[in-house]
Amino acid sequence: MFISCLCPGDTDTNFFTNAGGQKLKSAMPSKTVAQIAVRSMRKRKAIIFPKQVKLLALLPKGILAFAVAKLLEIQNTRVFK
After folding, report:
1. Would the pLDDT of 66 be above 70?
2. pTM for the full model?
């Protein structure tokens, strides 16, 4: 088993319309996000950033994994207390 984390950023869906907001001009089409995600999962990429420029993509996997684990730890603490 292999797990990938998709970090799509702004994605063009009906979410903003249904929520009464405006669509974001920077949003990537959802079909494109899905194609990139599937292609990246087949390459066994652990963290997938469909957009070209993402600061987090430059971090070593170990540091990023540690940061995500800490964020989840903080979130779980808030949820269960």
Report:
1. yes
2. 0.59
